[in-house]
Amino acid sequence: MPSTGSLEVITGPMFSGKTDELIRRLRRARIARQKVQVFFPALDARYAGLDYGKLTSHAGAEFDASPARTAEEILRAVEDDTSVVAIDEAQFFDDDVLPAVSRMIASGLRVIVAGLDTDFRGEPFGPMPLLMAEAERLDKLQAICMVCGEPASRTQRLINGKPASLLDPVVVVGAGELYEARCRTHHSVPRE
Ligand code: ADP
Ligand code: MG
After folding, report:
1. Is 10 in the pocket of ligand 1 (CB under 6 A)?
2. Is the CB of residue 39 below 6 angstroms from any atom belonging to ligand 1?
3. Which ligand is nearest the CA of 61, by number?
4. pLDDT for 175 beyond 80
5. Can you name the CATH fold of 6-141?
6. Which strands form 162-163's sheet, in the order they lie side by side?
7. Active-site option among 8, 72, 73, 89
8. From 6's CA, which of 81, 92, 138, 159 has a CA 20 to 30 Å away?
9. What is the pLDDT of residues 30-77, one digit of tens each?
10. How far is the CA of 189 from the centre of ligand 2 (A)?
């Protein structure tokens, strides 16, 4: 009888340890001799802070992974003897990722997804709310606020050291841009 598939979602702001936690679960699956396949969105690697060919956490952990342009591409790449499929930075896929994940679950796979719950404005990010609703297990991690040291649930975008406004373009050419973890109190999104 085929095993029952399931979905685990690991979410939270940047630096909250999503990739570390994903890699921890994948290493344990490997110890259990389960075949693991890992995917991340094929964006401009520099922009997304991704290292081509592997996941890399801010603490330095690494795990082999393949870039995928669409969720459909993930479905096509999954091999027959695979038991665990992981997707990191899932916020960058579109809503098609949900039917793709549902199909993998229906075929008995354990699917583990990591991604940002909110963008720099504090708004739900891409397909993450849908995936969070679908999950059997959901972990919302927190980072440390870079202003006060309390738990941080938000990602602050800074352009040349100042909070990015709602109206700033997603890519600011030539500007020193940076993201840091902040608590709700210290997260700031000026309206102009
Ligand atoms: P995520 O995938 O959620 O962005 P990572 O798993 O890549 O997070 O990195 C988590 C690691 O980042 C932590 O274990 C810690 O070493 C480091 N780190 C750097 N800045 C912070 C911060 N503000 N809060 C918590 N951890 C931080
Ligand atoms: Mg990460």
Report:
1. no
2. no
3. 1
4. no
5. Rossmann fold (3.40.50)
6. 162-163, 154-159, 177-182
7. 89
8. 92
9. 999 999 999 999 975 544 555 578 999 999 999 999 999 999 999 999
10. 22
Three-state DSSP at 133 gives: helix
Give me ligand 1 centre to Cα 79, in Å.
32
Token pair listed for 167 = 């109206």
In sequence order, what are the residues at sequence separation of 6 or more whose Cβ sits closer than 8 angstroms to the Cβ of residue 15? 58, 143, 144, 152, 180, 181
CA distance 27 to 189: 38
Distance from the CA of 129 to the center of ligand 1, in angstroms?
A: 22
Cβ of 146 below 6 Å from ligand 1: yes
Verify whether residue 134 is a known catalytic residue.
no
Residue-wise pLDDT for 95-134, tens only, equals: 999 999 999 999 999 999 999 999 999 999 999 999 999 9
Residue type at 50 in one-letter notation: L
Domain boundaries, the chain: 6-141
Buried b (16+ CB within 10 A) or exposed e, 81-110: ebbbbbbbbbbbbeeebbebbeebbeeebb
